[in-house]
Structure formats: C-alpha cells, structure tokens
Specification:
Structural class: alpha+beta
Strand content: 25-35%
Order of helices and strands: HEEHHEHEEEEEEHEEEHHE
Largest sheet: 6 strands, antiparallel
Shape: globular
Low-confidence stretches: 16-53, 258-302
Radius of gyration: 31 Å
Helix content: 10-25%
Number of helices: 7
Distance between the termini: 64 Å
Mean pLDDT: 75
C-alpha cells in the first residue's frame, strides 16, 4: 500500500515538473500585428507615474483632407496651435516640409470653412498603442528625397535617399489626466534582404527611422491633432506694391537733348539676354538644331528634379505641380 502511494506521489511530482518546464519554454506572445516597436524604456520621463498602467490602446478618428497642391492652407493653420513644439523643433520640422499642431475641437467647423478647395475627404478609425506604428505611408518614391537633420548651431546635415517609401510613425500613450501623449517619428522604409530571422516588428523598422526628428505632443480629449505639408511663404517680388506714375507728371514733349540713334548704334536683341536667345522673328539667323539632340535635352530637363523634402513625400500625392496635398486630422475617442 505504501509503495502504491509513493508511486502515485512520485507520478504527481513528475507531472508537475513537466508542466513547469513547458511553461518555462513557452515562447513570448508576439506584439499585435502592425505595431512597430516598443518605446525605449530608458527614455521614460520623470512624470511617467501619471501614465496609466498597461498597453491600453487609444482609438482615433483619422480624417484625410485632399486639396490642390497650390492651395494655401495658412488660414486653416492660423486656427491651430503650432506652439506645441518649441521654436527649434518647429523650425527643424518646417525645414523638412512637416507641420504639426493641435486644434480645439469646437473650432472644427470654422477650420473646415477655410478649406473651400477640398477635393476629397475620408474618415477611418485606427487603434494606436504605445508602440510606434505607421499612420501614413507614401506611394513608392520616384525621385530623390532628403532629410534635413541640422540642429543649429551644428553644421548642416542632410541625408539623401531614393526608392522605398516614406512613413510617419505614431505611438499613443494614455495619460491619467485624460490626455494622450503622442510621439511622431518620420521613417524612410526600405525593405532589406537578410538571412537572419526577424520579427514582424523588426521587419517594419527596415530602412531608416529618423529618431533625430522625433517629437512628443500631449493632445487633450477636446483637441484635434493636425499633420500636414509645410510650404514656405512665397518670396516677396522686388518692386511689388510700388506706386503707379502720377497723373500730374508732365507729358513728354517729343524733344530730347540725346543724340538721335542710328540703326548701327541700336543694340541687337540678343545683346542683353545672351547669344543663346532664340529670336521668333528671325529663326533663320539661328544655327540649325538636330531633332534628336533637341529631344534628348528636353528629356533630361524633365528628369532633372531637385531633391524633395520629407513633407513633399509624405503629404502630397506625387512630384508634379498639379498633384494634391493632404491634411490629416486625428481626434481621440477615448
């Protein structure tokens, strides 16, 4: 009897030990599909005690507003608060064609009225976690782009790249006061080939994550987060706004003390503009141009597009002047 009891006890211990071994060998559960990576624990701030525990997602309504690229959105941005970034961070973002601010939700209708040229708008709902994930991905890049990583007074630092796609990564962390802490980080996504095993999150980080351009913004429950393309104001044309000639100015009498010009003394039309100027009135005076050479030159001029900034890749539909620009509005639902 004692031997049977001992055998049963030994069997129970073996079963329990095997269960513990199985638990210890279990793989860690993967992070939700579509997330990028957890925030670096070493960057936790001093006020992190107000962050709610756990990885509670934040639900956002995302609205994409499409407008002609040439349409000014300054009146709309005047209603928003771009002071959520300090002057230096704001200048660095603007240098990259990026713009961010928060809009009081009650001013939403007024904001919409300033966008009279809206061509299209679409609403979607997204879940954002404390992991970085893309909320905007560009089409495949068809030109050369650059990231301006210059932080004054340091020397100018530009990174050029082609191919792949541009992404805006976002993470959301609920705060105890009802607000949401948002982290925004641009990324140049370029899939790489490797024989090493990668998790889905590691694959999403292929390419270059511009941590130097990462910013944090606290969005209250009654605010809307705005993201868009920054276009510098057009340069002021010299002489613009000068007064017209007065009606009281004396009329010319037709008499002049200057010597009368002779045909020989008159300048040729090309003297002031350069010898390469093509005269429409006298095409025979120009050297012949072969058709093939003319075609090749035109194609090269079309292909020569100067490098474009991050904002042009992220918040426009392409690289032509008649493309669209996009504004993104994120309203929290928690």
């Amino acid at each position: 009897m004692n031997s049977i009891t001992a055998s049963m006890t030994k069997g129970l211990w073996c079963t329990l030990a095997a269960g513990l071994l199985l638990v210890g060998c279990a793989t860690e559960p993967e992070m939700p599909e579509g997330t990028i990576r957890p925030l670096d624990p070493g960057t936790a701030e001093a006020d992190s005690d107000i962050v709610l525990p756990g990885n509670k997602p934040v639900r956002w309504v995302s609205r994409r507003v499409s407008l002609p690229l040439g349409t000014s959105t300054e009146d709309a941005w005047l209603l928003a608060n771009e002071g959520v970034l300090d002057d230096l961070a704001r200048a660095v973002w603007n240098a990259n064609g990026l713009r961010v601010g928060v809009l009081p939700a009650p001013r939403g209708p007024e904001f919409a009225k300033t966008l009279a040229d809206t061509i299209d708008q679409r609403d979607t709902q997204i879940l954002s976690y404390s992991f970085l994930e893309d909320v905007r991905e560009s089409p495949p890049l068809r030109a050369e782009f650059f990231a301006d990583l210059t932080v004054p007074p340091r020397p100018v630092t530009l990174e050029y790249f082609t191919k792949g796609r541009l992404r805006m990564l976002m993470s959301s962390q609920p705060l105890g006061n009802g607000s949401t802490r948002v982290t925004l980080t641009p990324q140049h996504y370029l899939r790489k080939t490797t024989l090493l095993p990668q998790t889905p999150q590691e694959r999403e980080l292929d390419g270059r994550v511009f941590d130097e351009l990462s910013v944090e913004i606290d969005v209250a429950s009654n605010q809307i987060l705005l993201l868009g393309f920054y276009q510098p104001p057009p340069p002021v044309v010299e002489g613009e706004g000068e007064s017209e000639p007065s009606d009281d100015a004396p009329e010319p009498t037709g008499e002049s003390n200057e010597p009368t010009a002779t045909p020989e003394s008159l300048p040729r039309p090309a003297d002031d503009l350069g010898e390469s100027t093509i005269s429409i009135d006298q095409p025979e005076a120009q050297p012949p141009v072969e058709a093939e050479t003319q075609t090749e030159t035109t194609e090269e001029e079309v292909d020569e597009i100067p490098p474009l900034n991050l904002g042009r890749g992220l918040f426009t539909t392409g690289i032509k002047d008649d493309d669209l620009q996009m504004l993104f509005l994120f309203r929290p639902l928690r």
